[in-house]
Amino acid sequence: MKRHAANLITLLNLCCGMLSLFASCSGRFGWALILICLAVLMDNMDGRVARALGCSSELGRELDSLCDVVSFGVAPALMLWLAHPEGGWLLFLCGMLFAAAGAFRLARFNVTPPKKGYDGLPIPVAGAVLALLVFFLPGMPLWLLALLALLLAVLMVSRIPVPKF
Amino acid sequence: MKRHAANLITLLNLCCGMLSLFASCSGRFGWALILICLAVLMDNMDGRVARALGCSSELGRELDSLCDVVSFGVAPALMLWLAHPEGGWLLFLCGMLFAAAGAFRLARFNVTPPKKGYDGLPIPVAGAVLALLVFFLPGMPLWLLALLALLLAVLMVSRIPVPKF
User: Fold this and answer.
1) What is the C-alpha separation between A17 and A36, in angstroms, rounded?
2) ipTM score here?
3) Residues of A at the B interface (Cβ-Cβ below 8 Å)?
4) Chain A: residue nearest B57 by CA?
5) Which residue in B70, B82, B104 is closest to A74 by CB distance?
6) pTM to 2 decimals?
7) Taking CB atoms and an 8 Å limit, are B67 and A103 in contact across chains?
8) What is the count of residue pairs from A and B with beta carbons less than 8 Å apart?
């Protein structure tokens, strides 16, 4: 049981992401945002629990990235599309590029030896920021929202050094 | 360019998955199914192209799994929920377990040394079968659809030997 405690928390991150998709599909964008924030919390907890219990594993690390791409790549993109149906193909394209940049970043992170800080913006931060923008600034012009989603995507794949907290 | 050819095909797999989500959200389930099948094609091609060009990489392998969880885990689950809104929490739960089982399978696959066959049902097969069931048998009783989604999830995480084609 102890061996799988951290992996169960990682899977709870995925459950939050899937619930966020479900909430966005029902037009409940407040819930979609809350669930993405809960996923950030789970993502933060699983590593700490794994280290505290001494059950860090390669499988856990892989599972973590697979859950992250759903909760912080796909869920905010779907929120972006469904909260702005008038955005059509423009926002769809930006959401897709956001998720693709997130997936690329996670893949690069997984094959990079551990170091002090991060290269580029971590996907949980980018995903939470996009969800916050969509929810709290519903009147933002579409071109600006599209631009900000693209900026977050570029920041994720960039090599800008970001400190770990 | 040659170095990234296979990774670009892998990202096309993700694009098909994201387009499938978009199609499901617009109620175009035929398109959602076609796009999942196109993602299967891309998933099959990227590895072949990488081997043919001699540009297989650890990053490509990681990216492949991250795209697979979206195209064959999340996209069929969303199709399941949205094509059967009367399924409510029952189908939501089954879709979520399906995606979680797919993520676990991919993580396990990534940390297992390469061998002749597969352990358990590969996620592209499970995702395509679920999408085909949802589209071609719209009158299926909900309990049966839920049971089949759970069965596919169990087959993915099982250790049943499946030959490679």
Assistant:
1) 6
2) 0.94
3) 11, 14-15, 18-19, 21-22, 25, 57-60, 62-63, 65-67, 69-70, 73-74, 77-78, 81-82, 92, 95-96, 99-100, 103-104, 106-108, 110-111
4) A111
5) B70
6) 0.95
7) yes
8) 103
pLDDT digits (tens, 9 = 90+) for B115-159: 888 889 999 999 999 999 999 998 899 999 999 999 999 999 999
Distance from CA of A104 to the nearest CA of B (A): 6
User: What is each CA distance from B13 to A61, A146, B16, B135, in whole angstroms?
Assistant: 23, 23, 5, 20
Helix (H) or strand (E) run with residue A102 in it: helix A88-110
Q: Is B48 exposed, middle or buried (0-12, 13-18, 19+ CB in 10 A)?
A: exposed
Strand partners, B119: B161
Q: Rounded to whole angstroms, how far apart are CA atoms A18 and A127?
A: 14
* pLDDT tens digits along B7-56: 999 999 999 999 999 999 999 999 999 999 999 999 999 989 988 998 88
